[in-house]
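Exam prep: given the inputs below (a chain plus magnesium ion), describe the expected output before reading on.
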Amino acid sequence: MHKIGFGYDIHRLEAGRRLVLGGVDIPNAAGLLGHSDGDALAHAVMDALLGALGEGDIGTHFPDTDPRYKDARSLGLLESVMGLVRSRGAAVVNVDTVIIAEEPKMGPHIPAMKAALAPVLGIPGSSLGIKAKTNEGLGPVGEKLAIACYAIVLISLPG
Ligand code: MG
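Solution:
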């Protein structure tokens, strides 16, 4: 059996914070605000996986009121979600994502994001899409106040 899941996340940009997306540190004057490292791409992928499993969302699994997740490395949280995927006997087939950011240019960092995320997801780089686009100056993302990410996953389950 196959199931799909869909995820979305948006985080505010704050001057002086680390910018982490897809597990990669990206040099930038501003980073994503969050209880964890603010990795909106990893969060969107996690929500997509949890959605495919019918297991709620990352807010229920890793509440931002829990001090254990303060400044948490989101790739580590993704590893926990993958533990849940495997505990169901499931495996990821493929993942596709979109990053919407006015700046910085994401293209040069996409190979490193793929190299960081694909092994955690247990898929080859050819089964992981990471695409980046701007918001054409429109809205809070276009005004460089935030970065948003979408993810869709396909998992295979026994039965
Ligand atoms: Mg988030």
